[in-house]
User: What shape does this take?
Amino acid sequence: MNNYLSCVASFSDKDLLSEVSRLTTGEREATARLIASLAELDARRLYLGEGCSSLFTYCTQVLHLSEHAAYGRIEAARVARRFPLILGLLAEGSLNLTTVSLLAAHLTVENHQELLDAARHKSKRDVEHLIARLRPQPDAAAAVRKLPSPKTPQVPPLSGNMLPDVAPPSAASTVPRGSRPVIAPLAPERYKVQFTVSRETYDKLRRAQDLLRHTIANGDPAVVFDRALTLLLDALSKTKLAATDHPRAGRTLSPASRHIPAGVKRQVWKRDEGRCAFVGTNGRCKETAFLEYHHVVPYAAGGEAVVENVELRCRAHNAYEAEQYFGAPLFVREDARPMFWNERTRSGPS
Ligand SMILES: [Zn+2]
Assistant: This one.
């Protein structure tokens, strides 16, 4: 393996990309074959003769899979026995172990074809939405609760169906209950949001509930949360996106200035739909966080701060393009950045 590391170091960029793609395909096919074999081993209960009381014990103690990896593979093996077309979907990369695991409890003879098809190439979040549409859950009751201090870790309940002989992944058992935020779709248009807050945040919530009592009589935290987020988004769009209800005519800034006027920022944000506009060989970047305003023709090369020359970039692509243009990677302190450095969306309008 050490030799292989020095071997890949000598690859061209193009060869390295195709090597990784080839290996990923191989890994998927190997995983699908492993799952098919585990399903058969499970049916024959061969783990018993190997001295293990369960397939899970066999996978962790004999095959040395992590508990998480064993759990996912066994769940996939059992559902693939009922619906073998899952194996092909795993092998071709249309589904992955996470999405199979999410779907496992919801597949039936009647719906599996349609549901598996709908889940192809979908993210975990998309599949959670699919399931929420299929099996809408009632709204979660609003609750503000004092939790015990997190001195003694407790095992949180596992989501999804538990296999009878599979222990919960131990990683979860070290996480105190309530410390993991939850944002989960319950039904179409309905979400459960759960998180733990500090004493200060709790006091703020209580004060907000009291002050809003005349309009939100029952102090519903979901309604207070929505009000707070509306105000936050409003404030953020004013400072980050330079959005305003009353755009000023704009000071007469020279287009040759490095500063990007608020009006240009507004138009660029709208045109690029608040998303990185970098287009690579596999299509446009999907990033919507850490966005920066990018001079297409760099400021240092005479590029002007006008709508036609400014696009949104995520932080990674902004740095990548600067590196492509100027050569050396730019690891520069914020206050020492050269004049061509692009202005960030987080800088306020002026
Ligand atoms: Zn990007």
User: Anything to note?
Assistant: The domain at 262-336 is CATH 1.10.30 (DNA Binding (I), subunit A). Strands lie at 182-187, 190-194, 279-280, 283-284, 291-295, 310-314. Confidence is low (pLDDT under 50) at residues 152-178, 330-350. The first strand starts at residue 182 and ends at 187.
